[in-house]
Amino acid sequence: MCKDCGCGEANGVETKVFTVPGMMCNNCKDAVEGATLGLDGVLSSVVDLAEKTVTISFDSTKSNVETITTAIEKTGFEVTSVVDGVHKHSHGILGTLKRFFK
User: Which residues contact 15 (CB under 8 A, 6 or more apart)?
Assistant: First the structure.
C-alpha cells in the first residue's frame, strides 16, 4: 500500500494518460469516465476536456491499457495516444484517517 494515501501504489497501480481528441462536452466526459470506471481494477478516471485527455489509475494485475482503450473506443471515441501519467495521491477519507492515526 502507498503509505501516503493507501491507494496500493506499491502493489501494481499504474497511471496512464489517454488522449481522446473527440471529447467536447460533459456528456462525452460522463460517457468515458463511466465506461472506464466500470472496468475491473480501475481506481480513478478523470477527463480533462480542455486537454482532451483521460487520466486513469488502475491495478495492473486486474486491467491493462488495451482493455481500457477498448472501453473508451466502445463509447464512440478514438484513443490517439497513451503515455505514462503521474500518480496523484488521493487524500480522501482513507488518506485522512491514515494520516490522523500515524
Answer: 55, 56, 57, 58, 84, 85, 86, 87, 88
- Predicted pLDDT of residue 100: 56
Residue type, 70: T
C-alpha cell at 16: 496512464
To the nearest 10 degrees (0 to 180), the angle between helices 65-74 and 26-37 is 140
Question: Which pLDDT tens digit goes with each residue over 16-75?
Answer: 999 999 999 999 999 999 999 999 999 899 999 999 999 998 888 999 999 999 999 999
On whether the CB atoms of residues 15 and 56 are closer than 8 A, the answer is yes
The confidence score (pLDDT) of residue 7 equals 56
4 Cβ partners below 8 Å, 6+ apart?
89, 91, 95, 98
- Residues 61/37/78/65 CA torsion (nearest 10 deg): -10
- Give the chain's length: 102
